[in-house]
Amino acid sequence: MSDVIKDTLSLFDQGLIGRFRRDCQNDWLQFTQHRFVKELAAGTLEQKEFQQFLIQDYLYLHDYCRVVSLAIYKSNDFTEMQYFASLMQGLLNAELPFHIKYCQERGITQGQIEKSSKTLELVAYSQYLLSKSMQGDLLDLIVLLSPCLVGYGEIGLRMSIDKCTNIKNNPYQSWLNTYTDSLYIDLIKKSFYFIDELGKKYGAEQRYQTLLEKFTMSVRLESAFWNVGRANLLGAIS
Ligand SMILES: Cc1ncc(CO)c(N)n1
């Protein structure tokens, strides 16, 4: 089992994603080895903090889906459209129902989510994605989205083979399983190939530096997002 996971993890080092990850290594490590991630793996994360994270992430997923629908609109052929439609389907039919289930298990109601203030971390990330995705072509757009697309998968896979992970009585195990589920991982595998294809089609080589800047900013916003559960109310706006 762990060989299959290691093979899958080696894909993260290849192609355009591999190059971006290497070229913003510090930021990437801060994101994927964040304090929140370590506490999740150990099962020591405060329940309250996780609940706040779930609420903010629910609100984030709404904006993320909006950006994916913009990608469908921006697609120039049916192959591109099909890829983004499958991503949308994965979000709406797999990740979101799981997310709603975790909220329900923790007694978080729909009304509570709708009444919640957005944290500055959420506003910054969502607004960055929503505004930047309006500019540029489909390659710019997928680069903006790719830390979000592949990051949780890498985190989930690494945790699943890390000896330090508490798998026996970890209250966050079912949430972690979402991101190692074969549906989620298959989508990521498809994404590596698709991003490389778009890279060739839309000339990633010629504008690599601009793309790297977009990727890196999304990675930093992902790191900041891990703090949403701790963001105090003074830092929240509605
Ligand atoms: C902020 C954030 N990034 C990535 C994912 C994975 O889809 C998520 N649910 N939330």
TrEMBL record:
Keywords: Hydrolase, Thiamine biosynthesis. InterPro entries: Haem_Oase-like_multi-hlx, Thiaminase-2/PQQC, Thiaminase_II, Thiamine_Salvage_TenA. It catalyses: 4-amino-5-aminomethyl-2-methylpyrimidine + H2O = 4-amino-5-hydroxymethyl-2-methylpyrimidine + NH4(+); thiamine + H2O = 5-(2-hydroxyethyl)-4-methylthiazole + 4-amino-5-hydroxymethyl-2-methylpyrimidine + H(+). It is an enzyme of class 3 (hydrolase). It holds the Pfam family TENA_THI-4. Residues 25-228 form the Thiaminase-2/PQQC domain. Belongs to the TenA family. Catalyzes an amino-pyrimidine hydrolysis reaction at the C5' of the pyrimidine moiety of thiamine compounds, a reaction that is part of a thiamine salvage pathway. This is Aminopyrimidine aminohydrolase. It comes from Commensalibacter papalotli.
